[in-house]
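Running this now, will post back.
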Amino acid sequence: MTNFISGINKFVGRHKKITGLIIIIALVGVFLYTRVSSSSNKPQYQTAQVTKGTLVVSVTESGQVSVSNKASVVTQASGIVNNVYVKTGDYVSAGAKIADVTLDTAGQQRQAQAWSSYLNAQNSLASAQANLYTLQNQEFVANQKFMNDAVANNMPTNDPIYIEEQATWLAAEAAYKNQTGVINQAQSALNNASLAYQLTSGTITAPTSGTVGDLTITKGMQIGSSNTTAGSSTNVSNQQIASISTGNPNTVSINIAEVDAPQVKVGQDTTVTFDALPNKTFTGKVIGINTTGTVTSGVTTYPAVIELDSSGGDIYPNMSATANIITKIDNNVLLIPTSAVQTVGTQSTVRVINNGQVTTVPVTTGDSSSTQTVITSGLTDGETVVTGVISGGSSSSSSPFGGGLRVGGGGGAVFRGAGGRGG
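Update: finished.
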């Protein structure tokens, strides 16, 4: 044993320079590791500058395109299409011919019934107008009798003759005035009968001026019903054969959430996007709000209508839409990212970096959006604020070696691992 230890000491003595070099390298490694570890544990911050700018506050709602710039071309005629005078994309004036239909038996019967109804309504109007003159005459006669008998003779107002003749005059006057309403009603009935007759006509015309679209008929095509029953025609609903685009702006119907409703007003600017048109954004204004609201499954919403600034040829009825309604604009205000604001109770604070030091300062906030917040006091333009922490940890460090390093006596060195043991 003594000889073994003596041999070790002789080996160490012969290699003192190598041992010292190893110790120095190890110490340098420990120093560098400690510096790197300390640096990596320092918090790394995401920052932004306080800037002056404009804050746009908006609410986002969803809805669908309303049918506002199209008029349907419909008919109740049934038979074979004889001619089509237009094609998709043509501009037509109101009343212009769209198509001719050779009516079948059922179509002819419907047209005959509609014509009969029209003539009946026309006669009713003429009768109501004639009756107006009769009632006017009766009112005049009753008034003259009352004035000549009761008023001219200074009858007391409680005299039976006075009371009777005044009542007769007032009744005649009321009947005459009421007849005006009867005439208006008869005129409406005539207009309705005229429209019904036009729907059964074999000549289909444009209801308004505009561009033809959605054309679904061709020459020689059967439309409507060809069935009929003895003595009567088959009832048919309106059949749409085309549409007329008027060029008026499209409208979008949206449902405003209950929490957003107090912020939305008529006249506010909006931007609108459509699921079917992902690369386009349209502008418009709120033109109406139903403040009564509707309740569906316990959820209250307030219907509103947005009118777009342009007709948008690619926008079709019932397309899904998303509207961003601008509820407020703040100009020339101090802005920071909303993520920089920390609020506890009623107190808001912001962390500010100055010369590498982070301090927390109280601030007063104003309006905010999902990304920016207005600062009314506590910060100045150009300051740097903390918006987030990338990394952070303890500043403590440890040796890169498992059990550490110790220097042994006699000028020798002994390295000990985690489970090792020095002699």
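The mean pLDDT is 83. More later if anyone needs it.
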